[in-house]
Amino acid sequence: MKTIYVALILFLITISSFSQKNYENGYFIDNENKRTECLIKNSDLRNNPHVLYFKSNTTDQPNKGDLESVKEFGVYGKFKFIREKVKIDRSGYRIGDLTTERESIWSEEILFLKVLAEGKASLYGYEDEDIEKYFYSISDSSVHQLIHKKYLIDKDNTESNDLIGYNNQFRQQLWMEVRCSFSSMSFMEKLNYDKNDLVYYFEMYNKSNGNQTIKYSDNSKKNIFNLKLTPGINISSLQIPNPITGINIINTENNVSFRLGIESEFIFPYYKNNWSVIFEPTFQSLQTKQEDNNHHTTINFNSIDFPIGLRRYFFINEHSKLFLNGIYISKLSKNFNSTMIYSSTYPLNEISTSGSFAIGGGLDFKKTSLEIRYYTKRDFLGSYAYWHSDYTRFSLIIGYRFFKAGHK
C-alpha cells in the first residue's frame, strides 16, 4: 500500500510540471511597431484578456504586457488579438440585466479584440463575463460593433404579448456595408448573432470579392461528452475496532477486489478543453473474514457508488494527455445484501456507508486510459452508535471510451 501511495505522489509531481508548459510559440508588437518573437502563455480563457504573459525562452521568468504597451499579439495557428479603441455596448443578456431601452448605450474603451476572420472584411470577438459582442472592419477602416441587443418590451406602449425584444441592427449593418453577392433579405433575417454564422458570412463575403480569409476561430469538432467503461481492481485496507476493548476485530491490508464503472464526462468548451466534470456509477465488492479470541467476523460488502468530480487534463500531444481527478463519493450508495457479522453476540447485519473523497491521476491515450486513484477513509457502520470502521483503498483503473459526442 505504501508503495502505491509513493507512486501516486510521484505521479502528481510529474503532472504539476506539465501544468507549467502553457507557453507556445507566438509574437507581440509594441507601440513602436517592433515585432518580438517569443513564447506566449496560452490560457484559452473565455474572457478576452487585459494582459499577456510572455517569455524569451522556456527557462526565463515570465514578463507581462498590457493594453498600454502591446498593439497586437498571438500564438501561431491558435489565436490573434489586436488592440483597438472602440465604442462598445455592454448590455447583457440575463433577464435581470435587461432594460426597456432598445437602443445601444455606448462607452468608449480600449480593448484586446480577438481576430476571428481576417480579409477585406474582418470579424472580431469580445467576451467578458455574461456578454458576447462582435465587431467588424472593412479594409483598413475603423472597427465598429455589430449591434445586437436584448431588451424588455414596455407593455404600456405595445400590444405585443412578448416579454423580450431584440434589436438586430447587425443585419442591417451587414446588408449596407458587408453585403455578399448571394445574400437576400430573407437570408439576412435568418442570420444569427453567433460566431459560426458570422465567420461563415465574412468568409463568403471575402470570397465573393476575390479575397481570401484567414480564420483564427477553431470550428473543428470538439468532443464535449464521452462515455467510458472503467473496470479495475481495488487494493484496500480495513480496520474495525471492538468498541469495548479497542482491539481490531478486522485488520486487513492489500485486500484485492474487483470494481466496474461507467464514466460519463462533460468537457467544458473553454480553457482549451482542459477541464471536465465526471460522473461514474461504480460497482465494488469486498469480502473478508477474521478470527480473534473465538469470535468470527465476516464482511460481505457489495455496493454501487455514485462518484462525481472534476478532471483537469494536461496535453502531451494530439493523442496523449495526463489528467488529475478530484472526486466526491456520496453516502447515498446502493448496497446489495451487504452485511457484517461479529459472532452470534453482535449480529451487525446492516452496513451504511459514509461519504468520502478521492484523488487520482493517469494517462489518456486515444480511446484508452490508465488511472491510479486513492480514496480517503470511509465508515461502513454509520448506523451503529458505538461501532465504526476505517476503510481506505487504492484503485487501478483501465478505461475504454466507447462513445463520444461533439459540437461545431
Could you characterize what this model shows?
The protein is mainly β and 408 residues long. It has three domains: 1-77, SH3 type barrels, CATH 2.30.30; 83-218, no CATH class; 222-407, Porin (Beta Barrel). 11% of the residues lie in helices and 52% in strands. Strands 1, 2, 3, 4, 5, 6, 7, 8, 9, 10 and 13 form an eleven-stranded antiparallel β-sheet that branches. The two termini are 45 Å apart. The mean pLDDT is 84.
Shape call: elongated
Unreliable residue stretches: none
Assigned CATH class of the largest domain: Mainly Beta
Oligomer: single chain
| Rounded average pLDDT | 84
In angstroms, what separates the terminal alpha carbons? 45 Å
Fraction of residues in helix: 10-25%
> What does the largest sheet look like?
11 strands, antiparallel
Radius of gyration: 29 Å
List the helices and strands and how they pair.
Layout: H1 2-18, E1 23-30, E2 35-41, E3 51-55, E4 63-66, E5 70-75, E6 79-89, E7 106-118, E8 121-128, E9 131-138, E10 144-146, E11 149-152, E12 164-167, H2 169-177, H3 185-189, H4 195-208, E13 214-215, E14 222-241, E15 248-267, E16 275-279, E17 282-292, E18 295-305, E19 307-315, E20 320-329, E21 334-335, E22 339-342, E23 356-365, E24 368-378, E25 390-407
Antiparallel strand pairs: 1-2, 1-5, 2-3, 3-4, 5-6, 6-7, 7-8, 7-13, 8-9, 9-10, 11-12, 14-15, 14-25, 15-16, 15-17, 16-19, 17-18, 18-21, 18-22, 19-20, 20-23, 23-24, 24-25
